[in-house]
């Protein structure tokens, strides 16, 4: 059987990999999207699955292993780790994972490790029947390979796939900078989104092949080859363009926020027949939507609105910078929502009856829901290069503070008019949310739960700008080759 990929054309795999391509754990990923969103702005990306991505990363791993002259066993272990690296990903990815973590202490990497080594962890009841009542085939296939003289270490595969620092090859899958996973992720997503504009070569395939050969293994450590500087800088540029395109799609930010909020309602308001368990992570996007999100009385209205492409109104997108900002925002989202809700209700002067009807129909507690995107753009990769002789004093150095986009959304109408009695006469007054109101919200957040962080409207400053303005500094932290 031949398998073809949109980037790499015909995929050639060793027989051991071919025997696992239809493993239940991988088949589940055919209905788990790379994006945890429906991405109306990028319809082809919305249908890109983690299954095709997993095959792509495995394919690149084969190229990389041959380039590094790994032994046959090491090559198979790296390819299998790449093939299975997303098997523990729940429906809607990070949106659901954050809810499972909050409620059950779910850890994606720890769960994946248990799956790969064949243990039944607390999130894998029923003997780890991961998909359609079936278990992973990995252990049995590896045992057959062992009888043929190919020694495969399941524990090592798990360490590589989960980024265990004790395993040098793990940096090829879960690296801090560029790795095989995000080589395929960035190029695959960008081509599907229709935004890729490759300067280095005429094809995305050629760039991906070259990047898979850009690693150096020395003294049990993985580095980048300095001779691949231009290819890696091209990958970095494409990644920045991709993230900026996603950040600029405000409606899709709203949809992701609504989906994440709907998942949270399953935990906050439990209903008989719709109790999300620890093992719900094994479902797919569509089965989870039908079994929970469209069945639960409170999440249903939100998900139906998502399906009809009716996003919540955006009050504004803020750029917040500071140490560990994404983690901090995630932990304080309820406070942020409450503060902005209080301001919005006061400003728009909605009647109590209208507020209650809106809350009952759509979000239950606050009239504002908040969400965030970690800003992964313009990250320096200079420290990962081997024997690089160029300058490392670029503007985007490795010590720069992290940033995140904070989106504020509401189902309420944010523009219009209200009628009030003024001096005994009825007058029609404007009842609209404006830029001045957003500035007031920034001051409120700065004085309260986000004190200690820098806050600005997204697009108004250097790290928050959305127009890809060029600077004299390249994004790898170098001025150029010497």
Describe the protein.
This protein has 482 residues and is α+β, with helices and mostly antiparallel strands. The chain folds into 2 domains: 4-248, Hypothetical protein af1432; 313-482. Helix content is 45%, strand content 11%. It contains 20 helices and 11 strands. A hairpin with a 3-residue loop joins strand 1 (4-5) and strand 2 (9-10). Helix 16 crosses helix 19. The protein is globular, with a radius of gyration of 24 Å. Mean pLDDT is 83; it is low at 390-399 and 466-482.
Low-confidence stretches: 390-399, 466-482
User: What count of structural domains?
Assistant: 2
Sheet with most strands: 4 strands, antiparallel
Work out the helicity level: 40-55%
CATH superfamily of the largest domain: Hypothetical protein af1432
Average pLDDT confidence is 83
Number of helices, where a helix is a run of at least 4 consecutive DSSP H or I residues: 20
Placed side by side, the strands forming the largest sheet appear as 6-8-5-11
Report the top-level CATH class of the largest domain. Mainly Alpha
Question: Could you provide a short overview of the structure?
Answer:
With 482 residues, this protein is an alpha+beta fold.
Notable traits:
482 residues; alpha+beta; Hypothetical protein af1432; 2 domains; 4-stranded antiparallel beta sheet; 3-stranded mixed beta sheet; 11% strand; globular
What layout of secondary structure does this protein have?
Elements: E1 4-5, E2 9-10, H1 15-18, H2 24-27, H3 43-46, H4 50-67, H5 72-84, H6 93-104, H7 108-117, H8 125-128, H9 138-147, H10 154-161, H11 180-193, H12 204-212, E3 215-218, E4 221-225, H13 229-248, H14 250-268, H15 285-293, H16 297-307, E5 313-321, H17 325-331, H18 333-348, H19 352-363, E6 369-375, E7 385-386, E8 403-410, E9 417-422, E10 425-430, H20 435-447, E11 454-457
Parallel strand pairs: 4-7
Antiparallel strand pairs: 1-2, 3-4, 5-8, 5-11, 6-8, 9-10
Helix pairs in contact: 4-5, 4-11, 5-10, 6-14, 7-10, 11-12, 11-13, 14-16, 16-19, 18-20
């Amino acid at each position: 059987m031949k398998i073809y990929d949109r980037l790499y054309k015909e995929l050639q795999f060793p027989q051991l990999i071919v025997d696992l391509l239809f493993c239940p754990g991988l088949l589940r990923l055919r209905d788990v999207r790379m994006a945890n969103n429906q991405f109306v702005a990028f319809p082809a990306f919305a249908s890109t699955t983690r299954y095709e991505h997993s095959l792509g990363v495995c394919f690149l791993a084969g190229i990389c292993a041959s380039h590094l002259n790994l032994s046959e066993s090491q090559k198979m272990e790296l390819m299998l780790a790449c093939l299975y690296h997303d098997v523990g990903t729940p429906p809607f990815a990070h949106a659901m994972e954050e809810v499972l973590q909050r409620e059950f202490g779910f850890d994606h990497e720890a769960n994946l490790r248990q799956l790969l080594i064949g243990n039944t962890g607390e999130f894998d009841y029923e003997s780890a029947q991961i998909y359609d009542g079936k278990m992973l085939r990995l252990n049995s296939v590896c045992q057959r390979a062992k009888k043929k003289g190919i020694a495969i270490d399941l524990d090592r595969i798990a360490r590589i796939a989960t980024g265990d620092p004790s395993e040098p090859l793990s940096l090829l899958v879960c690296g801090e900078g560029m790795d095989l996973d995000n080589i395929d992720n960035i190029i695959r997503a960008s081509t599907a989104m229709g935004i890729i504009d490759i300067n280095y070569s005429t094809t995305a395939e050629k760039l991906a092949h070259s990047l898979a050969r850009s690693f150096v293994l020395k003294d049990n450590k993985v580095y980048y080859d300095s001779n691949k500087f231009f290819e890696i800088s091209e990958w970095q540029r494409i990644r920045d363009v991709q993230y900026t395109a996603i950040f600029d799609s405000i409606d899709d930010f709203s949809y992701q926020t609504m989906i994440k909020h709907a998942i949270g309602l399953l935990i906050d308001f439990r209903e008989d027949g719709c109790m999300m368990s620890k093992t719900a992570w094994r479902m797919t996007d569509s089965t989870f939507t039908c079994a929970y999100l469209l069945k639960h009385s409170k999440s249903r209205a939100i998900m139906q609105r998502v399906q009809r492409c009716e996003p919540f109104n955006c009050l504004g997108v803020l750029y917040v910078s500071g140490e560990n900002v994404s983690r901090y925002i995630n932990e304080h989202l309820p406070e942020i929502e409450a503060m902005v809700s209080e301001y919005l209700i006061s400003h728009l002067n909605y009647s109590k009856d209208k507020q209650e009807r809106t809350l009952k129909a759509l979000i239950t507690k606050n009239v504002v829901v908040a969400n965030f995107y970690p800003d992964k753009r313009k990250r320096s990769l200079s420290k990962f290069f081997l024997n690089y002789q160029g300058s490392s004093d670029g503007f985007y150095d490795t010590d720069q503070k992290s940033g995140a986009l904070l989106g504020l959304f509401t189902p309420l109408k944010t523009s219009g008019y209200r009628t009030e009695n003024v001096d005994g006469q009825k007058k029609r007054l404007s009842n609209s949310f404006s830029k001045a109101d957003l500035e007031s919200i920034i001051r409120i957040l700065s004085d309260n739960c986000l004190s200690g962080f820098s806050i600005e409207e997204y697009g108004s400053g250097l790290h928050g700008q959305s127009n890809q303005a060029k600077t004299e500094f390249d994004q790898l932290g170098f001025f150029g080759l010497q």
